[in-house]
Amino acid sequence: MKLEEFATGNSFIHHLDPRGKVVAAAFFSGLVSLTQSLTAALAALVLPVILVALARLDFKRLMTRLAVVNGFILFTWFFIPFTFPGRVIYSIGPLDIHWEGVLYACLLTVKSNAIILALIALLGTSPVLDVVHALSHLGVPDKLVHLFFFCFRYLHTIREEYHKLSEALKVRSFRPGTNLHTYRTYAYLVGMLLVRSFHRSQRILEALKCRGFSGRFYILHHYQMKRRDYLFTSCGLVLPCLLVFIL
Amino acid sequence: MHISEGVLAAPVLLVGAALGLAGTAVGLKKLDYDRIPQVALLAAASFVASFIHVPIGPASVHLVLNGILGVMLGWVAFPAILISLFPQAIMFQFGGLTVLGVTTCNMALPAVLGYYAFSAGIRSPKPFVSGLCSFLCGFVAILLSSLAVAGCLVLTGGSFWAGAKMIVLAHIPVMFIEGFITLGCVRFLKKVKPEMLEVVYARP
Amino acid sequence: MIRLKNICFNYNSRQVLDNIHFRVNLGDRIGLVGPNGSGKTTLCRIIMGLLTPDGGEVEIFGQIRRKENDFAAIRGRIGFLFQDPDDQLFCPTVLEDVAFGPLNQGKSPDEAKRIVQATLARLNLTGFEERFTHKLSGGEKRLVSLATVLSMEPEMLILDEPTTGLDEQTIETLVHLLNSTNLTYIIVSHDKEFLERTTNKTFSICGGEIACS
Questions:
Q1: Are A55 and A93 part of one and the same domain?
Q2: Buried-state track A32-60, b at ≥16 Cβ within 10 A, e below 16
Q3: Minimal CB count within 10 Å: which of A63, C49, C165, C184?
Q4: Residue A150 contacts B where some CB pair is shorter than 8 Å
Q5: Residue ranges of the domains in chain B?
């Protein structure tokens, strides 16, 4: 789980206020997901490409990430060109490839990758907790933010517990296979993880109480929107509109 | 069960977002402040557990576990599933921000339905009733989730029919596996920590 | 400071504490020993009001405490160090975590930051402010969780197995720190040598009963 592999960096993009980046990313994704024109989608793709270049992200890691998240898009290529009605351009046996289908699959691919790249460049370049912190400033309810906050904090701890449990299975020569014994073992493993998390959450609550928790968290770091943040966010709102609506 | 960004049509995305928002609001309302660590850690645990790959024949599938989460959390499954999707959405970009509402609904609605349909049966002292209900709970959750994903695609365009059918068919083995895992998991919890199945988090 | 009278506690129909009496006076440095599962942690959690005894009376700072609110008032005055530091450290950074208690006590963010720096300096942890809590080593986690307790400026400490998993050097830091304070404290531990160096009284719990040894 490489949750924050793009978060460390020293570019201009990394130092922007996460609130501005969240607003720009949400707006861009929304706008691009609504567009139905391939030209507009292609034009919109230019912006995240520029952002990724500005953020100086590791090219190899970026490509690996794109390859992984394009699985679903690849899946659509297996049927959209055949099932989308339109002009037949080629036939493989009983299957006809339609030109409009190919265009539609292209549109989906470009839109999807434009949004993915924008999210990597904008949200991936801030640590997860900063993004969540930004969301809490943007009106996401406190309960949800706190839920996420605890969930994220203990993800690593629970993962370590999972690793210990699965190592314990290995040293007792457990070999997974397609049989009931395997499924039962995994069910107990999941049950154990849930029970341990439940116990841990009870201890966390006690620790919170011992430290005078009264349902309120205090934030020590505060962001300052600087001039460049305002400038960036305004560009993030205006440029995509121009590209999508003019083309 | 993630649908990529940029695939679904605007009305589907908007309805998904609205339903997701409503479900999350109900869930948050039912969630007391001092239950936050519990729900957050159960969400984290199910997120970690969803990385377990269970072999089936030559292939393997990963767990989803929305059925068991629904039984334990009721409506609170909505915010719990939302926060476990969130890091994937913003960090892995597996279904990013625009599809977050749709994906939350696809996973959480079956969880909540499972809670209403099966949680009474699961708590039954009769081993057969309890076992059957827990198997069905896991099975039906995946069935409904995959139908929901397929439905979103078909509503976007008729050309997705073939893909939608493939998704549901591909999830049939997952349904059985989740059924068995939920069955075993409930038996384990009943022995070790029965209060986790008493739906302490949800005020019905 | 603390007086427990006729405390009984059952866990899953097993009697863990059977009608025990226990007293802590100002300046006491108590070691609490006993076999695994004998109820040492249970006793500590009853003092903190995290568990409600099935019978008996808990008197802390001269007042009988029964309800959650009675205990909420004393929790800042008694610092409780948990067995597993991961349960205690939940904020992303050390600074936020150590400041959490003082902020709950109504200190301003600036005051809280000053307290954090002073506390970290006391534990030789200066410079740890921006470190991520979940990425600290086991020993560092233990010291930081002690810092989260000390930053609330308690009058008394309860340390639940503070030396498990620590190397000798960290144990030295701990011994030095405990000997240099004049706080009253209770330490639950299996580490005889550590208790000899830090405490002046030992109680042992066994079979539901407590005895001074």
A1: yes
A2: bbbbeebebbbbbbebbeebbeebebeee
A3: A63
A4: yes
A5: 10-197
Kindly provide the ipTM of the predicted complex, given to two decimals: 0.92
- Based on the domain organization, do A183 and A160 belong to the same domain? yes
Instruction: Answer yes or no: do A117 and A189 share one domain.
Output: no
Half-sphere exposure of A7 (CA within 13 A, CB side): 15
What is the distance between the alpha carbons of residues A224 and A67, in angstroms, rounded to a whole number? 36
Q: Total domain count for chain A?
A: 2
- The beta strands (E) that lie in chain B are given as 53-56, 59-62
Q: Considering Cα of B13, then B16, then B21, then B27, what sign does the dihedral take?
A: negative
Contacts of A176 in chain B (CB under 8 A): 54-55
Q: How far, in Å, are B37, C49, C188 from residue C139 at the CA level? A: 25, 28, 18
Report the alpha-carbon distance of residue B132 to residue B112 in Å, rounded: 18
A117 located within any domain: yes
The secondary structure of C143-191, three-state, reads: HHHHHHHHCCCCCEEEEECCCCCCCHHHHHHHHHHHHHCCCEEEEECCC
pLDDT band at residue B204 under the 50/70/90 scheme: very low
Fold of B10-197: Arp2/3 complex 21 kDa subunit ARPC3 (1.10.1760)
Question: Helix or strand or coil: residue C33?
Answer: strand
Is 0.90 surpassed by the pTM of this model?
Answer: no
Instruction: Please tell me the distance from the alpha carbon of residue A198 to that of residue A64, in angstroms, as a whole number.
Output: 36
Q: Residue A165's pLDDT band (boundaries 50, 70, 90)?
A: confident
Q: CB distance A183–B181 less than 8 Å?
A: yes
Which pLDDT belongs to residue B94?
A: 65
| Residues of A (186-225) whose Cβ lies below 8 Å from B | 186-198, 200-202, 204-205, 208, 215
